Amino acid sequence: MAVGVIGMGYVGLPLAVAFAAEGRDVVAVDIDRRKVDALRAGRSYIEDVADEVLAAAAVRITATTRFAELARCDAILICVPTPLSANREPDLGPLVGAARTLAEVLQAGQLVVLESTTYPGTTRDRLAPILAESGLVAGIDFSLAFSPERVDPGRTDYTMRTTPKVVGGLTESCLERAAALYGEICDTIVRVSTPEAAELTKLLENIFRSVNIALVNELAMLCDRMGIDVWEVVDAAATKPYGFMRFEPGPGMGGHCLPVDPFYLSWRAREFDMATEFIELAGKVNQQMPYHCVSKVERLLNAASKPVRGSKIAVLGVSYKAGVGDVRESPGLKIVTLLSALGADLRYHDPFVDDLPELGLRSRPLDEVVADADLALIVTAHPGVDHDAVVAQVPLALDLRGVTRRSGRAVLL
Predict the structure, then answer these.
(1) Which of 362, 370, 373, 374 shows the shortest CA–CA distance to 387?
(2) What whole-number distance in Å separates Cα of residue 308 and Cα of residue 300?
(3) How crowded is the C-beta side of 352, counted as CA atoms within 13 Å?
(4) Of the ranges 38-52, 95-109, 248-262, the best mean pLDDT one
(5) Are residues 156 and 265 in the same domain?
(6) 157 SS3 class
(7) Are residues 265 and 308 in the same domain?
(8) Cβ contacts of residue 71 below 8 Å, gap of 6+?
(9) Same domain, yes or no: 239 and 176
(10) How many domains does the chain have?
(11) Residues 290-305: pLDDT tens digits?
């Protein structure tokens, strides 16, 4: 039987390829015609899925914009975005829209699994009632479960198969069906008692990182005022063989999960008359980091008797992490926006991000970007870029990632 996947982004496409590689027919659904056309042509737009890997699996993948194709599937995985609204509250619009359309074609006996990161209770309280508009009851007429995605774009040491898969079902039989499905592509299945436990597991994983990144970023701001090298402090602390986990400072958090997940949980917690102050504080600290970075740019230029306005600033990397082209919630975009508002003459180089249409900028060759720059700003340290060579060419350099520490030529965060 076929597996349907709704949403062909960073989560859905690797899933579709993984199931196809195991011999399953896959119905890949996305409302974005450009993605569907790319898949039909065998062109991958995700760094983690090479064109040759997609081509090998393409014979079993039917890419379409039509939800009706899902009626023939044994299982359907929902992998749509779950962003934040302008007020930093959960926006389940894409999920609700996908669920309502799915309800029109849902068949008895199918398995539906939500993979999109969300707050505890979404699967049971939001998704199940919408799917019930089909006239079918979750847990009786069809199976329903939640299994959080654990995709880390650009990572190669842990794959879809080797990363343990958490699954929580609406009923025991729902759980077993979902576990059996994911067992085809994952070596280890971690069963939890409810969808809510699985939903909260995902949030805990990312909030843990958010809190610790906020801690080291706040320490970086303090070290800046105290004249202490935060990188030296982190290196020294990391020599302790127990009780310490290394986290490094940076310009802020990006991607879909880390900047978003804390707000999903804090919003949900308010419905239970609880304020998650610790979690919310971490989010606030990380949101302040781009402002701190721009302040350092101002101070560095000021020390050289240069104003920000009119200064040529070469920005190296705008995606949220090294080795990927994902700019969702990227602190680099905020930094560029803030510097632009101050009148800086900006140019950027990013081998993974061709253009930033909202900001009217296009990536330019590295040598062209740094040729007459007053300052080089390393925001994202992409592999293949000789950052030490860059900072040797420019009068001033600010390294927000600590990749030029050994050369000693750049000012560090």
Answers:
(1) 370
(2) 10
(3) 24
(4) 95-109
(5) no
(6) coil
(7) yes
(8) 105, 106, 107
(9) no
(10) 2
(11) 999 999 999 999 999 9
**Per-position DSSP letters for 238-280, written without gaps between them:** TT-SSS-------S---SSSTTTHHHHHHHHHHTTT---HHHH
- CATH number of the domain within which 387 lies: 3.40.50.720
**Phi (first) and psi of residue 230, to 5 degrees:** -65, -30
Residues 214, 191: Cα–Cα separation, whole Å = 31
Q: Torsions phi, psi of 220, nearest 5?
A: -60, -40
Say yes or no: 57 and 104 in one domain.
yes
Count Cβ atoms below 10 Å from residue 173 Cβ, excluding itself: 12
**Mean pLDDT of the region 382-399:** 94
Mean pLDDT over each residue of the chain, to the nearest integer: 94
Residues 116, 76 contacting (CB under 8 angstroms): no
- pLDDT value of residue 354: 93
Asked whether residue 25 falls in the same domain as residue 155, the answer is yes
Classified as helix, coil or strand, 3 is strand
Six-digit token pair at 373?
A: 């720059």
Residue 204 resides in a domain: no
Q: Are residues 97 and 64 in the same domain?
A: yes
Asked about 293 being catalytic, the answer comes back as no
- Could you tell me the CA-to-CA distances from 130 to 12, 66, 104, 321 in Å, in that order? 21, 19, 10, 36
215 part of a folded domain: yes
Query: Of the residues 73, 174, 257, 293, which is catalytic?
Result: 257
